[in-house]
Design goal:
alpha/beta, 9 helices, FAD/NAD(P)-binding domain, 5-stranded parallel sheet, Enolase-like, domain 1, 3 domains, 22% helix
Length: 408
Amino acid sequence: MSEQKCIIVGASHAGTQLALSLRQGGWEGRIVLAGDEPVKPYQRPPLSKAILSGEKSLEQIPIRPAAVLEKAGIEFLLGRRVEAIDCAGKTLQLDDGTTETYDKLALTLGAYPSTISLTGSDKQGVYYLRKLADVEHIRTRIGDKKSVVIVGGGYIGLEAGAVLRQLGMSVTILEALPRVLQRVTAPVVSEFYERLHREHGVRVMTRTLVTSIEGEKQVEHVHCADGSALDADLVIIAVGVLPHTRLAAEAGMAVEDGILVDEFACTSDPDIVAAGDCTRHYNPIYQRRVRLESVQNAMDQAKTAAATLNGNPQPYHTLPWFWSDQFNVKLQIAGLSQGYDNIVLRGDPDNSSSFAVFYFEGDRLLAVDAVNRPGEFMAGKKILLQNLPIDKTRLADDSVAVKDLIDF
């Protein structure tokens, strides 16, 4: 029997972890990691923080050391884009017209930035922030006393705004909704982050729609629906991301706001698995399908996909968790808060940068937002993972440790 070949399309967190887990799990054939960027896999979270600020370089943020990948016999196909998948013939069509054959295929395609169609959005100085090349372009326009307008008050927009403000830039964040982070947090968390940014000199404008971006050849002003015009040497558009599903959909795989996978990371094609931001899977904790944009999900689901390819299927069962660093504040999130109808607040966000919000649906805990509170974050993870009861009536008492309110 000829040597089997697995191609992994998407060379980021999920793809790298899948390649290593596949080899560690006993795969003896070839493993080819393909990516459209010309560099080896690097960590994504530092892009909007340490890389943007210049504190770290590309060489300091590999997902895994090059020696580890080399020892595992991982082959690379970098700077090449897969244009189409022929499931029947088990071939990939590449952007240079060549083809690659596979025995097993893994899709770790990630997500791409949502775009906005505005007059002037194609001008020089207008960027999205998703890849290393994006940050390299943005860094050419960073300068003390220069102005940046960030369109979008989500985590990426806020993180980038914090870094650029600390680099001496005049920063304005524009959010179309009534508050920043509205889709993912309670009002008390949004209010805290708006205040945090304003205290550091960031201008935060909510309920503000951008109508056009003006300038001769490059951006000079951003015009808003309320008639205001903002000076801008740089514009960063951060209005969310969309899953890469085109390849899967055109190849006939099931897609629904993400590539649909089962608990073993299998797509509707028996020879193709998928993992990471591009997938939508059933989460038994929340009893519904979810699509997650997090490093943790990418890595964990990749391990499940690798086990499946190695003939050792293990159901994917994990609690989503996330984090965000802004100024001197670390937010750690355990679980998914969508669907909450009441919250319990621990701490005083009006007078402190240390507090936690527990999200409930009735008496059932859904999620925890912990601001500079690692203890509450860890306790929340344990409660959610083990479905433990908690004394909700005493939870607001900040003098009592959360661990003492859990019924083990």
